[in-house]
Amino acid sequence: MTSPLSTPAAPSSAARWTPRLWGTLLVLCAAMFLDALDVSMVGVALPSIGSDLNLSTSALQWIVSGYILGYGGLLLLGGRTADLLGRRQVFLIALGVFALASLLGGLVDSGPLLIASRFIKGLSAAFTAPAGLSIITTTFAEGPLRNRALSIYTTCAATGFSMGLVLSGLLTEASWRLTMLLPAPIALIALVAGLKLLPRSEREKDHNGYDIPGAVIGTASMLLLVFTVVQAPQVGWASARTLLSFLAVAALLTVFVLVERRSAGPLIRLGVLRSGSQIRAQLGAMAFFGSYVGFQFLVTLYMQSLLGWSALHTALAFLPAGALVAVSSTKVGSIVDRFGTQRLIAAGFALMVVGYALFLRVNLDPVYAAVILPSMLLIGAACALVFPSLNIQATNGVEDHEQGMVSGLLNTSVQVGGAIFLAVVTAVVTAGAPQHATPQAVLDSYRPGLVVVTGIAVAGLLITLTGLRTRRTQQSVVVAKSTSLEAERVPVRD
After folding, report:
1. How would you label 377-387 residue by residue, b for 16+ Cβ within 10 Å and e otherwise?
2. In 360-431, which ranges are continuous DSSP H helix?
3. Is the pLDDT assigned to residue 474 strictly greater than 60?
4. Is 28 helix (H, G, I), strand (E, B) or coil?
5. For the domain that residue 155 is a member of, what is the CATH number?
6. Which domain holds residue 395?
7. Residue 191: in which H helix or E strand, if any?
8. Sign of CA dihedral 48, 53, 59, 62
9. 232-255, pLDDT tens digit by residue?
10. What confidence score (pLDDT) does residue 1 get?
């Protein structure tokens, strides 16, 4: 059977999706699903891992942070590598590494080896995520086809995250090793299917060599930034170590910009960031994921530590948000076609702000249906609108040979935003931790963190609203170029 991408009648121009095209999308969705599944499953299993392997709290923290470090630190390199070496090749190799690292993580009997396996998994995800997203954006034509594909693709992340919470509660009852091993067979099935279904992609032919200095400096700066943010709550935000690390990050980023401006084949073409729409997408991604990660962290502590809920009970409490995202997956693409990404992102952030604010009402004896469920439904609706729209906005109008780069940049914004804002929320809660830890005092120490989470979402909303205002201004200028009579009678639409 001929690949649908090997002829002029590529799926990007097709009016209807073929079974092969659906298969391609499902393979890519499986990788995204696994990334989210892996992140959410580990958190619930940490106490069992610590008990079995005799790990300290700081060592347990690195089981999570190791993944974030590999993922967030290497995304820029992963995205550009996909453009230069071929998206299909990079995706499949990284997916194979992910499967092997999952197998290793479930079999090791050493804390350092488990942390190493987590770093390798994060590293492989840093290559599968931008490669997978760029395969979609180069396979489906910009417009309704791509919007639908991206809405389904990004929904798999939310579904994987929600299912991971539930599965981890069930699997950890048997053994924490099952939470590590579960992704391995799924990744292998996706790898075999990908070998058959993924369209073959050529390496970028017209590039001006490999930006080795940019790759080294950019990767080093991202690794150091994520490492510094992850460690700051433990060593102190005002400590000499943290301040010197941030100073080193600033120096590396300055050198990186200078290198990229002079490079004939840059890791990131800085001209992409001259687009207001692109900048809003990147900042919106940071605010969106950063606020949600901080919210989930606090709510998990609240439910398990203060309310005494089990891991499974807590996972089921979050489930309505994920279920709402999954149910709406096939509808978001058509909504984007009708209203545009800016309006949907703004509406989604508004729902997030209300959902987070409503959660401030919680007490030590909440009625789930009246106090917690409304927030979960609002946040689920917000995720359904915002995440696909951000992906669409970031990749629209970008040439095919730069889709991997932009995809890597967007995923970097997501991961760095999550790491930074989670660290900030953790620092705020820790600073307000009571000396006499009565349940009410602990709950009161969580509220400033929830206020910070709400504020991050408000910042995301304000950033998005600037895009709506800019668009109205641009349309007013276009209308004004017609006759003065038309300028008075033609309404301006955003």
Report:
1. bbbbbbbbbbb
2. 373-395, 403-431
3. no
4. helix
5. 1.20.1250.20
6. 11-200+265-489
7. helix 183-197
8. negative
9. 877 888 899 999 999 999 999 999
10. 34
